[in-house]
Every structure is written in C-alpha cells, then in structure tokens.
Amino acid sequence: MSATADGQRLFVGGRWTDPDGGHYEVVDPATEETVGWAPEASREQVRAACAAARQALDGWSRTPAAERAAVLGRAADIIRGQLGAYADLARAETGATTGTARAMQVGVAVARFRRYATVEPAEWAIPPQINEAGPMGRAGVMGALAVRQPVGVVACITSYNNPWANPAGKVAPALAMGNTVVVKPAPQDPLSVYRMAAALEAAGAPAGVVNVVSGQDVGVGEAVVASPDVDMVSFTGSTAVGQRIAEVCGRDMKRQLMELGGKGAAVVFEDADVGSAVAGIGTTFSFYSGQICTAPTRVLVQRGLYDRLVEQLASYAGRLKVGDPADPGTVVGPLITAEHRARVESYVELGRKEGATVVTGGERPALERGFYVPPTLLADCTNDMRVAREEIFGPVVSVVPFDDEEEGIALANDSDFGLIDYVWSGDVARAFRVARRLRAGGVGINTVGRNMEAPFGGFKKSGVGRDVGSYALHAYSEVQAIVWPG
User: Fold this and answer.
1) Which domains does the chain have, with CATH numbers?
2) InterPro entries annotated for this entry (predicted)?
C-alpha cells in the first residue's frame, strides 16, 4: 500500500517503501492543522530510486510508443475518477481554493496526461543532399533521417505551487518519449505526487519507470541531481536553486530543463482597454495568492493612464475575498508557510522604506489561523526598487509610470528575469511591435490567457529550454541523425 497509519511511503523500484528518515508533518496553510505525514528519504534510498530508473530504462524505452501512451491515458482516467478526493488533498496541502485545486491543479494534470497519450511521430525525413565527388568519397545522393531518442533517466524536481500540474507536465512527456523518471516533489506538499505515482502504477507503468522520493532535507534533492544514473534534470523553482543545480549538471554534462523565477512586466499604454487590463492583472497576481511565476507583478503604465489604472486596480484588489480556500466565495487563500508569509510581508515593508505607497492591502487580515497576505498594491514605484526587481512570489504588485513606447520597452527589459510579459494597447500593430522587442519567453497581448500548445520557458535568469505541447517532447529527447547513401 502507498500509505499506512504512520504516514506515506516512498515509491522506489515499483515498491512502496518505508522511509529511512521517518516522517515529517505536512501542514494545511489555511488551518495550520496536519494534513498528513510525508516520508523523509535517505541518500541511499535516493540512489536506489535512481538505480531502479536506470534498470527500467532499456525495457521502457523499447516499449512501443502506443503502449507507453496507453499507460498515460489510463492514468488520466484514474486521476479523473478521483478528482474530488485528489482536489481536496491538493487544497489542503497548498491552500489553493477549491476551484483552483479542481481545475488548475488536478484538472490540468489530467489534461496533460491525456495530451501525451496521443502518439506523435518521433522521426522525420531530411531532404536528400547531392554530394560531388571529393576527398570524402564518390558523388552520390545522401539520405537522412532525424530521430527523437529518449534522454535516459530524468530527475523531475517540482515546485510547491502546483503539486499536480507541474509534475504531470514533466512526467507525462518524459514517459511518452521513453524516459524513466525519479520525481522529487517540493517538501511542503508531496502527498499529491504520491497519488499520481499510484495512478501510474495502477495504469500499468512497469516497476522502476516511475519513482518518487521526498524529504525536507536539501540532501534529498542534492542526491537526486548528483546521481550518476541521472541523465537529465527538469527543475521548476527559484533561480537561486536552479543555478546550484546547473553547476552540478554542468560538471557531468547532464541535460537541463529549467523553469525558474519571474518578474513579469505588464506594459499598459494610454489607449488600452482599462477594464481588460485591470481584470487581467488583478486576477493573475491574486491567483493562488500570487505564488505563480507568470504573474504580472511589475505594472508599467503610461503616465496619462497612471492614476486611473492605480485607482481601478486598487479597487479591484480590495474587493477580492481573502479567507478559507474551501469557501466557494474565496478568491485569495493563504501562502504556503508562515516563513513565506513573513518573507512577503518583509517585502511590503521594504517597499514602504523605499518610498512606495501602499494603496491597498499591506496589513495581515484579521483571521484566527492561516498564513494570509491580502492583495497588495504598491504605487509610486521606480524600476530600481527591490520590490520592482526581485521575485516576491506573493500577491504584491509594483506600479511604475513611463512616458513613451521606448521607455516602456526599456523598463520592461530592465530586469534579471524574462519569463512572461504582457502588453495592453488598443493599437494592435503597436502591441505586436512591442511584444517582439520584449526579452521574455512569452508575451500576452491584451490577455493573460495561455495557449497550452505554445512553448513555455524563459529568457535570462528565468530559465533554460522550452516545454509544453510538442516542445516538451523535444525537451525530453535527444535528436539522432541517421544518414545513408541513396
């Protein structure tokens, strides 16, 4: 069984295994009560998980793609059948609202497993080349084929803000391409990831193809990354941790896929639809209490619209209900831990000291329990303030004025990050012109919506590589060229 009365077990080599390090408490950030007990793996158990993935690689990589896809499809059905229970667990572990847990966490995980249950061609022809006679041989026609091959054993190190969609976005395409995986979930909310592993086991994933090891000790993640059995690391999390992982990967030339921090700029021109901009920015920076890397947390507003937008955005944010995520009316739930709440609050205080004006929010809500921070709007900011430059990862937005298009672009690009930016303008030609000049992996024009087949990833310190849709199949594969004489 995956869990006992004493706590969750690890999943190593197809077996549910008692952890050497015992268990630690998983806390509901809304109630501060115990959700369950997560396993603390030892370094030896991490190495065993990586070895199990290595042993299973040959058989799984040679399994026909249609059979691998069928496992993913069955897993999607199993997860969908338990959507209510799994969403309840996700809500309790993360503090996400019920709607977010159902639709954006478990629901997106189901969609991602189904997406990669569709077999796509893994090879494509290269136009033949006519070679003249020379030192390399006689004249002739050379045919070529490009083939996607699995990378090998993939370490999937996932973020706490979405313990369903984030792991599914790594595990599903990795398995579809014939890789095996070792998943190291975030320590704050790993229990959902073990449910995902159980679904894959029930769906017929062979022993060792999927392994899950967790722990609060940083040594667990370090052991996964350093394992000689690991060929690739797929990481979602902070830039600082990503940099340390990249150093280890670089020593052994391990492949990397890094989805790191963000400080998204929303460039709002005077001719923008103000209602659309306010709704887009307001819903996104408050969604999951701002604990998302794609949030437009730097709002750059052309000066003629500045006062009006600040007023309307403050009004919008002030109407968002903060409280129990199980309440259907709640929009903003808690932050993940008390420590993270303290960090976010310290940034608000820093903003005050830097000269920003707290227009709305900024004070801890009068709730008896839970790690809450209300949506907070900081006006009168400049782009050199720390609150405008550093990722806060909470429901806090800094608003900065600009005069003309060139200044707006310069301010947006004056950042260490470059994940997702946004442009609002009634002039579509200008919006596209500006979008092309923004140094970000993605740009939303008059929308905060996403196309789930579009490549996702960042420029600069926001990451390395792209995934989602077919791009994930490329990310979790090596391309091999096969050449022959025609």
Assistant:
1) 3-260+462-485 (3.40.605.10), 265-455 (3.40.309.10)
2) Ald_DH/histidinol_DH, Ald_DH_C, Ald_DH_N, Aldehyde_DH_dom
